[in-house]
Amino acid sequence: MHPSFLKNLADPLTKEPLELQARQWNGEFVHEGALVSRTHSYPIVRGVPRFAGHKGDAGYTTSFAFQWSRWPRVQFESENIGGPMEGHTLRMWERITSVVDKDLHGATIGDFGCGTGRFVEIVRRKHGRVIGLDLSNSVDIAHFNFEGDPNVMICQADVLHPPLREESLDGAFSIGVLHHTPAPRRGFEKLVHCVKSGGWIAMSVYGKGGYYDFPSVRLWRWVFRALRPVFGHYAPLAYTYATTRMLRPLVGVPLIGVALRGLFPFVKLPDIRWSLLDTYDSVTPVYQSAHTANEVREWFRECGLANISASDWGITAYHAVRK
Fold first, then answer.
1. Could you tell me where the beta strands, DSSP code E, fall in 157-269?
2. Which residues contact 208 (CB under 8 A, 6 or more apart)?
3. Domains recognised in the chain with CATH numbers
4. pLDDT, tens digit, 9 for 90 and up, residues 46-90
5. CA 108, CA 129: separation in Å to the nearest integer?
6. Which pTM was predicted?
7. How many angstroms separate the Cα of 118 from the Cα of each of 132, 141, 238, 282, 316?
């Protein structure tokens, strides 16, 4: 953790200021220590402030920790140069946020649900400072991916209780994350509170009737949740490899392909690594809600945002400005 981010942090439960107590430094970064408020103390372990999840109290994130340890950089823009998915992550971020061809000039941006940091990399390309929040142990991978960058801080934290001062960010986004929490609407409201007046806000969640909301996807998710106490993550992993590698060539066969994907859903993308990751991601989360465009737009309106606009990346992606 770089100490320059201390001004952005607050106790996630009380919003009190935090004091940095460093025990071990790695150059200009705090490697071990604590962030202390009047009522709570939060450890800094291996360079990552740990506000939640590190004591095993967030069981619904274990599937994400597993998938990101297996596919840590598959979706990074820098890993796809010259490949079939080159430009995908950049286009996705720009179209959802509407921050296109713009240098962020040191603005501090919050990534609510950063995973291993695919979108953190995009913000850094645009010269922004980034605070990435994630509840899963993927924060250790994200921290490693940006180790030594004083303009990135990764925190293990619950997006429903962000450890950020109110109105401390110049912009914030959450892409493909809040539907994996028990309270997506509340998570969005918390994100909004962290952004300054005039700052930008963007969010995307799964849409009703889309692939992630298919009855067959929901059924397999239920099956693997029931099998998890016995087989852990390996039952859905076996399913992912079997469907993606064995059924992929049959998708184009009339009738047969449609029937197979109806019974055994999987994500078909030009890069099979992306297909494996997204298929596993679709059948494993504990929470995976789906929403309508009107519902999401209402969240933005209820938070009193201005210039609310729909993105052209799916039906449930919007961006706006805080008044």
1. 169-175, 195-204
2. 290, 291, 292
3. 3-207+291-322 (3.40.50.150), 211-283 (no CATH)
4. 999 999 988 765 568 889 999 999 999 999 999 999 999 999 999
5. 5
6. 0.95
7. 11, 11, 25, 18, 20
If we measure between CA atoms, which residue out of 68, 194, 176 comes closest to residue 113? Answer: 176
For residue 102, what pLDDT band results from cuts at 50, 70 and 90?
confident
**What percent of the chain has a predicted confidence (pLDDT) above 90?**
89
Residue 323 burial (C-beta neighbours within 10 Å; 0-12, 13-18, 19+): exposed
Q: Residue 191's pLDDT is what?
A: 98
In the DSSP assignment, the letter for residue 249 is G
- The reported pLDDT for the residue numbered 55 is 77
Task: Give the pLDDT confidence score for residue 58 in this predicted structure.
Answer: 55
Q: Is the dihedral of CA 215, 221, 225, 227 positive or negative?
A: positive
Sheet hosting strand 152-156, strand order edge to edge:
152-156, 129-134, 108-112, 169-175, 195-204, 317-322, 305-310
Instruction: Report the interhelical angle of 234-241 vs 272-283 (nearest 10°).
Output: 140
d(CA 162, CA 189): 11
How far apart CA 53 and CA 55 sit, in angstroms, is: 6
pLDDT tens digits, one per residue of 292-307: 999 999 999 999 999 9
